[in-house]
Design goal:
524 residues; alpha+beta; seven-stranded mixed sheet; 15 helices; binds guanosine-5'-diphosphate
Length: 524
Amino acid sequence: MAEDIEQAVSRRRTFAIIAHPDAGKTTLTEKLLLFGGAIQLAGEVKAKKDRIQTRSDWMKIERERGISVVTSVMTFEYEDNVFNLLDTPGHEDFADDTYRTLSAVDSAVMVIDAAKGIEPRTLKLFEVCRLRDIPIITFVNKMDRESRDPFEILDEIEQKLALDTAPITWPIGRGKTFSGTYHLALNAVRRGDDEKERTPVNGPDSNRVAGLLPENEREAFIEELELAREACRPLDVEAFREGHLTPVYFGSALRNYGVRDLIEALGAFGPPPRAQEADTRTIEATEEKMTSFVFKIQANMDPNHRDRIAFVRVCSGKLERGMKAKLVRTGKPMSLSAPQFFFARTRVTADEAFAGDVVGIPNHGTLRIGDTLTEGEEILFRGVPNFAPEILRRVRLGDAMKAKKLKEALHQMAEEGVVQLFSPEDGSPAIVGVVGALQLDVLKERLNFEYTLPVEFEMSRFSVCRWISADDKAETLRFIEAHRGDIARDLDNDPVFLAQHAFSLNYEAERWKAIRFATIKDYQ
Ligand code: GDP
């Protein structure tokens, strides 16, 4: 029987994992899928990461450098919930890809290495979540190793992230003696994830707890737990959903501790698909009519078929196979004949998808990042951001005859979000912009492999790029007029100001007070 929309929405949890490299994101992903029944054997995700594949040369970059460029979606069910885990690239050079993915989730799990605490990339990703009010559940990983004191970790989260903490579980033992988690509010113990249910206990001084700890640690544990109860905040679900408080879980993804706690938490109080802001109104997830937006484009792995998969987050209604949708940017109808779901190993045809679900829509370049699909309504979702590139280059092509082909290829790459493309107003050759240098390597490989366009990059005289706007459009035009040689247009024809260095940008910003120089642009 077809599922009713309200019920389907309430079951869904769409989330991402944010972490500094090496904190254990891959291991945790693997275990979530394992306990969610999506894969048979732990090790699949890792195996996928390591497997020799010859899909294309840019995948080779990924392999050689041990990084994950591709964003994928993993769906699993646990008890009554459907979980969509959106994976993000681990390498910071692909940060903009990660940020776009975060625009498609309702919550995030922040993995912290118990010995290292908050690391730089955790902080950066957390800031992006905060900007979007994404609620965060914290998982303190690697408790089976030598780690910091749990109070110290909680304090660090509060200080560095300005975020309240509410420990839900407490580690029983540490390092070599780590042997389970104690649920503070329920007074219940789970030894490890192999135990599906927690065992209720009378308190931290119960025999069951004592049996898990060496004799010389028992007293300290009882005291610690009492202090935790007195000093720490209880869970306030509203504060969590508003992004002011993070529930904290302790565990070890490698040794199967705390993973079930985490899945249960997401199911119990993780936010279901949110209402989504569009330009003219807010769309509720339970509305009847389908709405969705594209947050990611993935070039097909198979270079013989130059089609692309657009990753679409459903925001409301039901996306059904074979339905006709309207692509609002162009006003044209589009038939969704073969939407796909992704699992850890495979993809399957998606017959129906609800708010919170992510489906892949194969297309030949019709869809762009930021596009809105509806059943006819003229709305545009905002919020898939563009970040000002930090590296600007000119593309040099050996064979001048292929200039037109290069232009087309760059346009495609820009629509996929591999790079950003800026066309100077003075007619000089286009400039590509990226956030991280590895993106240039990917661009070079793909131009060579997919388009047989061997290219080199040249320094551009610019190093800073900002989107310009003003409340008074005439002022923007005056600025553009006065800086013709330093203005370019992005893919949407929006103007950017290119500066040689930060100093010249500051100088102009001083002189043109009414002009905004933005480092982030939301796709229209
Ligand atoms: P990622 O870079 O965040 O994806 O981290 P990985 O999941 O690849 O983990 C990095 C390293 O830490 C690997 O060698 C893992 O085996 C190890 N690791 C992950 N989780 C744990 C844990 O809970 N305990 C211990 N001791 N090692 C872990």
